[in-house]
Amino acid sequence: RQRERGDTTLRAALVVFHLRCVTMSGPDALFNVHNNFYLGAYQGAINEASGLSGLTHTEQTERDCFVYRSYIALGSCQLPITEISEDAPTALQAVKLLAKYLSDAGDKEIVVATLQEWLADPACAGNVTLLLMAATVFQFESNYVEALKCCHGAQSLELMALSIQIFLKMDRADCAVKQLKEMMAIDDDSTCTQLAQAWVNLAQGGSKVQEAFYIFQELGDKYTWTVRLHNGSAVCSMHMGRFDEAEKELLEGLSKDAKDADTLANLIVANLHLGKPTARFLNQLKMVAPTHTMLKRTEQLEEVFDRAAQAFSL
Prior knowledge:
single chain, mainly alpha
């Protein structure tokens, strides 16, 4: 498998080199930037963006949005907060608001109120990046109704993919399937669509899990293996009872980012099923992501257990 990945990586590198030799103007000018971002290769997206030239003003703004969003994903929220000026385009201002929301010193209530005010303004309410940033913040707030309003009727694949994530969180796989069909009608080969299909397949379970596994494998072999793809592949393996394979996949992901919260959480699950110690991964998760969903659920279960135990105490 490692040899196959190496050969595929070489071929992918040659393809990227060829693409760089072609003029970057036109509808696919930002393809490599988008693709790296969706795969979770954030530094790759930043690197690709730095080599682009001859872009239109609209493409420059979109490029900058993906660059700053990549920095946010890497944990560098302060950079877009500092660099994006008050007179920047609406899209960049929206990205700045997301950075403020996620920063340690961010005033979340002010960010939410500002987004709601902008969404009520007809002059900018149709801005795709604004809708995406607003939906992302509302999702963090667990306000799924408002988040879905931002995604409703969108022709943006990324907004549609986000709505699928929200539907799955709401246990509405039926709505997710319907949205996926609309995405596939627009572009079934898009990385964004492929990832969404894998999420839906996982939610449906059964034989669909194997199909999701193949999607993650294909994306990793075709482009680059990222922490996101390692986790997706590992979750599929766990659903199929292959916990040894899942552990190997997750350890590969951990070697690329030792602080990735989802990798640590999934390693805890895999090791529990394998009968291996989990204390180290649990302590790491508490340090890097003290508000992670797994930790919150664990605390809730511990409280329930303690109350039940007290009822039987002498």
